[in-house]
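Let us practice reading a record.
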Amino acid sequence: MKSNERRRKIEEILDINGNVEVSKLSQLLNVSMETIRRDLDILCTTGEIKKIHGGAIKSNMSSTDYFFKKRITDNILEKKQLAKTAASFIEDGDIIALDTGTTVLQLVDYIYNKDIFIVTNSLPVITALSQYNLNHLKGKIIFLGGEFNENSMASYGELCISMLKTLNITKAFISCDGFDVSKGLSYHNMREALLTKEYINKSMKTYLLMDSSKLKTSSFYNIGETSMVNTIITSKPCPKELKETAPNTQWIHVK
């Protein structure tokens, strides 16, 4: 394939998907990644695309949008299976909290027809719920206001926590950036860590939803031990050390 044809093909993929990854283009077009990077450099001069780490996006898409959408689509089938399992614990009359995790976001498709209160600081959760118009959405939504963070598309801060402290939650569904049985739950962002800890404190039961990429990893801010969570829902089998560190925590292995 000639260089002009290859670049036209890259443009076609960008028109369809809005983004491309260097490694995938290299495999698809059977050329080196360095060749793909040169092609992207040339295409960037047209103003139609812009390069990001590991690829390129259409110029009308922000890098924040791209990376957030990528977080949602990574391991999407696994996340949906975990969410479906978690939804089975939600009953009519519950007051549930949903955090900003992309696995937790998938819960929306399984709970929109339940008669529940939904408390969240996540704009994507609100947006997803709004797609089920008032004729189909049986529950009520409480959005926690505060300082908005465009990277996570969520609100945080003292105002958000103060509002949460006035509420009584029956079940919280949370995520994490890193999890180790001996170290507990950890997060990249301190404000997210503080709010998640408050979700746990205010809830009668807490359910941690994790895809396999989070296991046996640690992030900067640790909020507590594994035992602070009632139930862990993940695609990995239960580690032996859980019985010692958190004997009362239920581990659900979704196959």
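A brief commentary: The CA atoms of residues 64 and 151 lie 6 Å apart.
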